[in-house]
Amino acid sequence: MPPVKKRKVAQEVASPAEDSDSQSSRSESPAAENTTNDDGSAENTSTPKSFKQLGVIDSLVEACEILGYKAPTPIQVEAIPVALQGRDVIGLAETGSGKTAAFALPILQKLMENPSSFFSLILSPTRELAYQIAQAFEALGSTINVRTCCLVGGMDMVPQSIALGKKPHIIVATPGRLLDHLENTKGFSLRALKYLVMDEADRMLDQDFGPLLDKILRILPAKRNTFLFSATLSSKVESLQRASLSNPEKVSVSSKYSTVKTLQSYYLLKPHKWKDLYLCFLLNEFMGQSVILFTRTVHETQRVAFLLRSLGFGAIPLHGQLSQSSRLGALGKFRSKARDILVCTDVAARGLDIPSVDVVLNFDLPTDSKTYIHRVGRTARAGKSGVAISFVTQYDVELFQRIEDALNRKLPEYETEKDEVMILAERVSEAQRYAIMEMKALDEKKGTRGNKFGKGKRTRDNMDQEEG
């Protein structure tokens, strides 16, 4: 295979505040102009200041303006012109860098030149991200009446089959459910596919989608354009690249571990046995504000949600073991402020556009520094202020030190008065007993259906769930 051509653009800070592709593309970028110095030499300054300068047609530029996209982000500046030339693209960029528009705009422009059904397939590792990508395509393609279809597990296949029967232009899918339809939905074929996008490829391969992707690639036509986007270029991603791309050009946005200046980050060093107690104290401190609370496991997410509900907090869980309708319902209630506390696994750490979050609590520390950046990036968005507090127990000290090393700074400790906290001890102890009983009841209920809570063999249908 010919060598991969590389292009690289430096980015000041991959700001977690711009946590969704749609939000991040609203950031200002300086104009790219060739100016002349006094000595007559040419000076090239920064990036293009408009989508039109990248070659995007007027109707799509209008859609960008309607959505509030003021200027292209660095990954869009690099990827869009290459994609419009008909080249395969490898895009290395974090979630929040504006990459959805980086592949959506070229695909929609080519679709206008040659309208056809089943024009493009976008593969996503999670259901929520798939829905968000589909919404982005619908919004950007609103001026050209683009038809989209979202195929994800956890939902009835019949309405999805009916939607496929209407011959959509764009299909956004998780790998497992796409294969189900390719094998079982009569008349559905991707033989005429023109574009394939694999978004968050590193996450897909981490979730063991490799064999499913191999099957999908064998079904798709060899003559197509392929875009592969990933945060990292691991050996697995390189193997996928060799199997699916032809003479690609690599575009990357360099970034460093950093958080925005408007984010106030703290840690809370307390014994593990007092975590629930200090959690309830903090939530009382931030009463009335919207809070995302991250845990490490599905079991802990559900337990903490039961605990907080018994204490009168408006908490709602979000994790991969919920039905898809429950997951969408949880996000909807939190977005609409019907619930002010979202207790979740890392299913909500990357990619999702959740506006107006005041506080992020890392009840369990993430196992890697990148996930920490993504988590705290749920707040302090678009110039607003925000607070992030991480619980550190005697078991987490080394893990927390690694996060501080990645940030290249020491975080201050969040000050609390022990006497004030201990007043809540009796109520929290009672709530803990209630939560344990609710978890046992839930396990028994799940057990009657042959699948104990959080357990069981992964099927194709539930592979696209976050395990927490």
TrEMBL record:
Residues covered by the Helicase C-terminal domain: 278-422
Membership in a protein family: Belongs to the DEAD box helicase family. DDX47/RRP3 subfamily.
Transmembrane regions listed in the UniProt entry: none
UniProt xrefs under InterPro entries: DDX47/Rrp3_DEADc, DEAD/DEAH_box_helicase_dom, DEAD_box_RNA_helicase, Helicase_ATP-bd, Helicase_C-like, P-loop_NTPase, RNA-helicase_DEAD-box_CS, RNA_helicase_DEAD_Q_motif
Location of the protein in the cell: Nucleus
A Pfam family it matches: DEAD
Originating species: Penicillium cosmopolitanum
Region of interest called Disordered, as start-end residue ranges on this chain: 1-48, 446-468
Record's compositionally biased regions (Low complexity): 14-33
Gene Ontology molecular function: ATP binding; hydrolase activity; RNA binding; RNA helicase activity
Quaternary context: Interacts with the SSU processome.
Entry keywords, A to Z: ATP-binding, Helicase, Hydrolase, Nucleotide-binding, Nucleus, Ribosome biogenesis, RNA-binding
Gene3D superfamilies: P-loop containing nucleotide triphosphate hydrolases
Name of the featured protein: ATP-dependent rRNA helicase RRP3
Biased composition (Basic residues): 448-458
Domain Helicase ATP-binding intervals: 80-251
GO cellular component: cytosol; nucleus
Role summary: ATP-dependent rRNA helicase required for pre-ribosomal RNA processing. Involved in the maturation of the 35S-pre-rRNA and to its cleavage to mature 18S rRNA.
Top-level lineage group: Eukaryota
